[in-house]
Structure formats: C-alpha cells, structure tokens
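Deviations from the work plan: none for this task. Representative record:
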Amino acid sequence: MTDSLLHQRFPEVAAELPFLRLGDTPTPVRELPLGIRTPVWCKDESGYGSGGWGGNKVRKLEWLLPDAQRRGARSIVTAGATGTNWGLAAALYGREQGLEVALALVDQPLDDHVRAQLARLEASGATLHRTHSKLRTTLSAPWLLLRHANGRKLPYVLPVGGSSPIGTLGYVEAALELAAQIRAGELPEPAHLVTAVGSGGTAAGLALGLRLAGLRTRVLGVVVNDTLPLSAKHIVGLALRAEDVLRERGAQLEPSGLTPADVTMLRDWLGPGYGHETLSAIAARDRAGMVGLHLETVYTAKAFAAITDLSARGELDGPTVFLNTYGPR
Ligand SMILES: Cc1ncc(COP(=O)(O)O)c(C=O)c1O
C-alpha cells in the first residue's frame, strides 16, 4: 500500500509509476512573525528525508529512484555545479537503494558553503567527474554513459536538478499535501506560493499540483539560475510534460489547461548570476535566521528576499507561502 497522495488520487498509475517514500509527511507549515504587511507562512521542506540530507531534491528522488529500478538500471549519471545539493541527494539516496552514482560537476563561484559541499560529495561514495563547463559536460556525455554502464545496461540519466517530468511529480505530490493542510485549517488558501527556481522542477510540479487540487494559488518563482531557460513558458512546458507522463501511465485525467499566464517567474533577485551572493540575499538570510529559518544565499535567501521586497512595495497581496527548499543536516 502506497502513501502517495498522487497514487490515492490516481490509483491506476501506481504499478507504472512506483513511489518510494523517503521522508515524513506532511512537512510542517507555520506562520512567520516577520512584521511585514503580507502574512507569510513557511512550508518547511528542510527536514524532509532520511538519508542525512533533506530539502526539495528528496521529493524528486521518491519518483526517480523507483523509476530507475523499474527499468533495471544499476547506475545513475547526473550533473550539477560544484556545490550541487541535487548531486549530493542523488548520491546519498541512490546508493542507499543499491545504485552506483556518477556526477559530472560544472564550476561555480567557490565560497565556504560550496567547499564544504564538495567535501560532502567526495565522501558520498559517488564517482565525481570535474567537467568544469556545460560544453565539456555535454561533450563527455557518451564517454560517461559507457564508463558507468553496468554490463550491457546503460545508466539511468537524470537532468540537472532532477527536473525531468518524472522528478517533477515530487512537487505535484507536495502541492497535494499542502492542499490537505489547507483543508485541515492549518493555513488559509494562499494567494501566492513562492519558491526558488534553479532547474524548474519544483515550480513546475507545484503549478500542476495546485491546479489538480483545485486551488487558485499562483506559483511565484524566483529564478536563481541564468544558465538554464527558466521562463514561465519553460516551467509550464515541464508541468505539461509531467501531466503527459501521468496520462501515458494510465491516469484518467482531464487536461489541466495550464498556460504560461498561470505562473510568474521573476529574475530581479538573481544578481550577477547563479551562485553569486547578493547583498539582498545576505540580508534576507539574516532576517530569516531571526525567525528560525536556516537559509543559504544561492537559492532560498534570494526567494525570501523577493517576498520582503515585494511586500514592502505593496506588490504581494494576500496570504503567501514561502517554500523552504534547503535541507542541510
Ligand atoms: C536549496 C534549493 N532550493 C531550490 C532549488 C531549486 O529547485 P529546482 O531545481 O526544482 O528549480 C534547489 C536546486 O536547484 C536547491 O538546491
């Protein structure tokens, strides 16, 4: 018996789309005493996961790892930047499921956080390939696949951030969970759900899940990565591909009708680029610390800065949920 809300909604997909629960649900929601005009709740994913590392990546792996196993893969290959949270989660949880994990690492600005992360990656048991640039990663892909093939079985390849249509189902599931918390009276129906956007799967999954749950909440994505196309059109395109996967695997599902107008992607908090600290992110990280949230400046503090800045400008009306996607242990 599965405890996936998506499986409960579409029992017909359970055999074709297996699910592996890796954390305790529901993740908590609480109102943040920020003293700003917008009432803000936090849905806190930081403690989600069992394998020594949490945050939003675990939700994607709950669908990706069983899909890899269903296809008979014995190894997975994926890529990320030097401080990749995604790569670390894939390494730890993948190996726990008996899969070999290989990571291609692209350079990013080095700071203490990234150096510490690299040390964790080195200790994770994954094979690391420092490919340095996106171009060299793409060029070395055929070699990586052969190098990590197991007998005649090629590795299961995962895109950056785990944001494939199947990985995206993780945040469809989380949106259904949030909807149940709203129904139970833990928080009002939010006008906005704010998340950092690095590879897009989180925002895309939320958009589809909120629509499936019949909520009017809008996803407001704060883009923190300038190396991938992450417009509203791209995010909704990914959400629609996740919807197609559900349908292809048997879900009786009316078209969601999602269009790019249904999500908002904001780039004003990116600063000079992916991984670059901004003064507003540093200030937001410190402000979040005062209400008991541990954020970092690559993703979550940029999203948090957007909430306080938009609220101060009177551009964020109605209850707002901040999704804390960062899960250090
Ligand atoms: C802490 C954190 N928050 C947010 C994100 C963004 O999520 P996504 O890649 O699904 O856009 C990531 C990864 O990219 C992350 O590591």
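The domain at 5-56+163-327 is CATH 3.40.50.1100 (Rossmann fold).
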